[in-house]
């Protein structure tokens, strides 16, 4: 009798383990990142970190390095689109249409990093006007090419993306873009960078109000832009990892 009971316990335990291992992912993520250039080391570090987070949290993630495969049907597979250092130009026409539909119709969530606000005319491509409006009506103006350390201050501490993130934290190395205008009137700002804390100091500034994390509530899709995303050392920061993690689950609606 005891032997049969033991066998039953072992069987049930094995069945539970097998079920857990074969459980469907909670949601599916698509991550688009550049296939070279200055930001590839950030993207490599992001992949390692994302893969572990996906495994630990039971979601799946696919990576692509160009927009060739993106269309409406392709995006239906994903509940979250992460734009890892991929600029808003040189997209295939069908990808442009599909992405706009994805965002405006709220088909899934979106997180954009760093290069996603490289808005203007680059490499012979015109500015993607829709994307500029999505990002608050801005155009890229300049950046700190030699990098600067700075303090990021959280403005909306109650937003779910900021759960567990301190009121301010240090970013050790970043380019800090400036834009032709402040996006604040058109977006909901979650965090700013204090330009007075730049080390070394720089004349390349917005002039006071400098949003670096925001969401645009004028679109159905849950969306969040996080400027910081150039250096792989960002993933050494617990605060950055917390911000990124929160953004994933919030934007995916989880």
Low-confidence stretches: 5-21
Kindly report how far apart the N and C termini lie. 45 Å
The count of β-strands is 11
Mean of residue pLDDT?
92
The rounded Rg comes to 20 Å
Q: Would you list the SSEs in sequence order as H and E?
A: HEHEHEHEHEEEEEEEH
> What does the main sheet amount to?
9 strands, mixed
> Helix share of residues?
25-40%
Number of helices: 6
3D structure, described in words:
- The protein is α/β, with parallel strands linked by helices and 254 residues long.
- Helices cover 30% and strands 24% of the residues.
- The chain has six helices and eleven strands.
- Strands 2-1-3-4-11-10-9-6-7 form a nine-stranded mixed beta sheet, covered by helices on one side.
- Helix 2 links the parallel strand 1 and strand 2 (60-64).
- The radius of gyration is 20 Å and the shape is globular.
- The termini are far apart.
- Mean pLDDT is 92; it is low at 5-21.
Give the key terms.
254 residues, alpha/beta, 9-stranded mixed beta sheet, 24% strand
Describe how the helices and strands are arranged.
Elements: H1 2-22, E1 28-33, H2 40-57, E2 60-64, H3 72-75, E3 80-84, H4 93-104, E4 109-113, H5 129-134, E5 140-142, E6 148-154, E7 168-174, E8 178-179, E9 188-199, E10 211-215, E11 223-226, H6 238-251
Parallel strand pairs: 1-2, 1-3, 3-4, 4-11
Antiparallel strand pairs: 5-8, 6-7, 6-9, 9-10, 10-11
